[in-house]
Amino acid sequence: MRPVLRGDCPQSSDFSDYRDSFPELVSRIGPFCSYCERRIATQLAVEHIQPKDGPNGRPDLKGKWENFLLGCVNCNSTKGAKKVQIAEVFLPDRDNTAAAFNYTMNGDVVPNDSLNSTQLRFARNTLSLVGLDKRLDQVLDSNGNLVAIDRVAQRMEAWLIAVESRNDLELNPSDSFRRQIVRAALGHGFFTIWMTVFQDNPTVRSLLIGAFGGTATDCFDSNSTRTISPRPSNGLADGSKV
Fold first, then answer.
1. pTM over 0.90
2. Pairing of strands 68-71, 45-48
3. Which tens digits make up the pLDDT trace of 39-51?
4. What is the residue extent of each domain of the chain?
5. Is 27 helix (H, G, I), strand (E, B) or coil?
6. Is 131 buried (19+), middle (13-18) or exposed (0-12) by CB count in 10 A?
7. Residue 91: how many CA atoms within 13 Å on its side-chain side?
8. Which residues contact 85 (CB under 8 A, 6 or more apart)?
9. CA 146 to CA 107: how far, in whole Å?
10. CA separation (Å) from 144 to 107, 138, 139, 160, 193?
11. Torsion angle, alpha carbons of 43, 46, 52, 54, to 10
C-alpha cells in the first residue's frame, strides 16, 4: 500500500460537495486506488476514511479534506459504512504503509514479518477493512487461461509484467529503458509490486517514487532501498503507527 502525502486543503473551507475535491486528489496522489493501488481509468471515487453515512457515519467529516482518499469500486464497496478506528488500522496518508505489508508473486498482500503483535493486529484490521485479504476468484477462459477479473489476479498479472520488465532491463540496462519501465508501472498501477520486484535496483525504485505523484518520500531512505519506520509525523491524528 503506497504511502501518500495529500498536502494541505486546496481551499480555506470544507467542501460543500465532497465530489469537488476529486480533481485535486487525482492531481496530488494520482489516479490510483489508495488501498489496492490499481490504476482506475473510470469509476475512481473520493473515498471517505470515516464513513459519511450509515449508523457509523460522520456527517461532520463529509466535506473535510483530511478525511478524503481515493477508492475503487471494490475497495469502497468492501469498506462500505464500516466503523473505522483510525488508531487501529494503517492508513496510507498517515502511516508508512510501505513498511506494513509484503506483496507476493501469487497475489497475496500479507503483514510484514517485522511487525510487532500490536502492529500485526492493525495490519490485519486494514486488510480486512478493504478486502485485501480476499482469496483468488479463479476464472478461466475457453482456452484454460486465467482471466484477471479480481484484485488478486490483477496483482499476479502486474507481478509478471514487472518481472518481465526486470529481465528485459538486464538485457538492455539503459536509462531510456528504465524510463519505459516507469511508464509501464504508471499505466498498470500497483506501485508496491513494482517496488518489490525491483527491490535490488535503487535507481528504478527512485524513479518509481518520483514518478508516482504524491508518494510520501519521507517514508523511504535517501537511496530508496529501505522504508523509514515509523513514518515521520505529518500532523494527522493517530499517525506514525508504523
1. yes
2. antiparallel
3. 999 999 999 999 9
4. 151-219
5. helix
6. middle
7. 25
8. 125
9. 13
10. 19, 11, 9, 18, 26
11. 20
